[in-house]
Amino acid sequence: MVQLIDLRYGRPRTIASYVLEGSDGPVIIETGPDSCYPRLVEGLARLGYEPAEVRRVFVTHIHLDHAGAAWHFARHGAKIYVHPLGAPHLIDPSKLWASATRIYGDQTEPLWGRAEPIAPEQVVVLEDGQTVKFGPLEIQALETPGHAPHHFAYRVGDAVFTGDVGGVRIGQGPVLPPCPPPDIHVERWRQSIARLRGLNPARLYLTHFGEYTDAWEHLDRLEAKLLEYAEWIKDKLRQGLSQEQIVPLFERMLGGDLERYGLDEEGLADYEKADPAWMSVAGLSRYWQKHHPEALR
Fold first, then answer.
1. pLDDT tens digits for 35-53?
2. What are the Cα distances from residue 73, in Å, to 2, 34, 53, 59, 268?
3. How far, CA to CA in Å, does 75 sit from each of 70, 89, 120, 123?
4. What's the CA gap between 29 and 152, in Å, rounded?
5. 182 preceded by cis ω (within 30°)?
6. CA distance 64 to 114
7. Structural contact between residues 201 and 151, judged by C-beta atoms closer than 8 angstroms
8. Which domains are assigned to the chain?
9. By three-state DSSP, how is residue 115 classified?
10. Which of 118, 94, 113 is CA-nearest to residue 37?
């Protein structure tokens, strides 16, 4: 059974942590940020667990909203499972923290808490396609770049825990691609979506946010939005607009998309918290400028 813990990052339905039962205790997929760790502890308590009982933690990638609280469990003795490219940043998070600080400035710690180093012996590097077993529980790591080069999705039976490669979708709203800088790569993301589609999963578990059973339609819509937004940003860059000029235009377009789904002000705020518009402008702008500068001429 999969148990969802709402970490209530600023508001409900923003970041999810998932708890599964292994042979030696609970297994967590996604810890959320350090700033939400008290709510993760509360959620575990409601399920009858103490943090020290968690022996295995899987993170889809090392961005702070997915792995920022992993160090707490490592301090209790848990093993942290991660992509090879992400492991060094769990062991020494200084570059990760510096990158976050460039984006969030003096709000970094209030938003995300702290990022403490994890002892190398607590970090388990997984390879693409590798399956680890804890009694009847089997978790397979699937390399799924595009949002980040160090991204895994995790297959458990007929379900996939998608991290960010499966998009952001809240309640009855649309699925949108979260595109923060610096590593967005549209072509690789499309390949990852194709890989997930090929698994024909019965359920997708999104970190942002929750369980969905219309996997094929979900992934089709995600890919369509990724292409639509990438082309839209490219057109604005070709017009000579700066990112600062593009952001309010993108916010207006995104707001229209959300309103077409009948979302009220609360629903709009949910999406803005989980997937800020300015981050997608920055991430997709960098994608075009880095990987396809010729398309901007």
1. 999 999 999 999 999 999 9
2. 19, 11, 9, 12, 33
3. 9, 16, 12, 12
4. 11
5. yes
6. 9
7. no
8. 3-218 (3.60.15.10), 229-296 (no CATH)
9. coil
10. 113
